[in-house]
Amino acid sequence: MAARTLINVPPKAKRGEVIQIKTLISHIMETGFRHDNVGRPIPRDIITSFVCTYNGEEIFKAALYQAIAANPFITFHTVATESGTFVFQWTGDNGFAQDASAKITVE
Amino acid sequence: MKQAIRQVVGEAHVKPGKIKLDLPPLVENGNSVTMGVMVDSPMTAKDYVKAIHVFTEKNPQPNIISVQLGPRAGKAEIQTRVRLADTQSVVAICELSDGSFWSHTVDVIITLGACLEELP
């Protein structure tokens, strides 16, 4: 099932301006340290990596661990250099892969 | 935690300063704690922050997040939400483009830790 994502990128920016990007994805981020009601360990299921590319060039990359809360929320910054597309990719355990994109107009 | 930090910094000397870890001093619920990390850096092509790593002392797994940045980031500042298992200290370490490492340690008091609750 596709995870829901929420991306916040300013639609317009001036050239050279530092913009803030907020990303949120729905995911349980099961740590693998918990047990169910009969004592069996619950297997780990987390997002392990997050990458953001801006017109094909990688601008931000993060390795996530169990210590990231459920529904990982990540905020970061970049310089608006040209109009184009941001592509966000999350990958994780059990073949989890999800991407999202956002457009920006730079004046 | 020391081992995990060693793996990242290698033999380099880690100095305090330049980086600021923003965590509330008293946390009621360790399952979701807003955490901010900012590094004092001009973020130019010659002088920028290469990476930011955050570690915990008492979580079952010492790493929280490892971020790779570049001069295109414009501003070395990230925010996320983390889980903290217990009252402990959290360490943020940044690697600058000149190869130096800087750190900031914050002590956090947790009233309800993450990872403790069992499923119903």
Question: What's a quick, concise take on this entry?
Answer:
In chain A, 0% of the residues lie in helices and 52% in strands. By secondary structure, chain A is an all-beta fold.
Total number of strands of chain A: 8
Share of residues in helices of chain B: under 10%
Largest sheet of chain A: 5 strands, mixed
The number of domains of chain A is: 1
Q: Per the principal axes of the C-alpha atoms, what is the gross shape of chain A?
A: elongated
**Contiguous helical run count of chain A:** 0
Structural class of chain A: mainly beta
Largest interface: A-B, 33 and 34 residues
Strand content of chain B: over 45%
Question: How far do the termini of chain B sit from each other?
Answer: 32 Å
By DSSP, the count of extended strands of chain B is: 9
Query: Main sheet of chain A: which strands, in order across?
Result: 2-8-7-4-5
> What characterizes the major β-sheet of chain B?
6 strands, mixed
**CATH fold name of chain A:** Immunoglobulin-like
User: How big is the Rg of chain B?
Assistant: 15 Å
The CATH topology of chain B? Immunoglobulin-like
Characterization of this structure:
Chain A is mostly beta strands and 107 residues long. Chain A has no helices and eight strands. Chain A starts with a strand and ends with a strand. Chain B has one domain (2-112): SoxY domain (Immunoglobulin-like, Sandwich), CATH 2.60.40. Chain B has one helix at 2-9, and strands at residues 14-16, 19-22, 26-29, 33-39, 49-56, 63-68, 77-82, 88-96, 101-112. In chain B, strands 1, 3, 5, 6, 8 and 9 form a six-stranded mixed beta sheet that branches. A three-stranded antiparallel beta sheet of chain B has the order 2-4-7, with no helix packed on it. Chain B is globular, with a radius of gyration of 15 Å. The relative contact order of chain B is 0.30. The mean pLDDT of chain B is 89. The interface between A and B is medium-sized, with 33 and 34 residues.
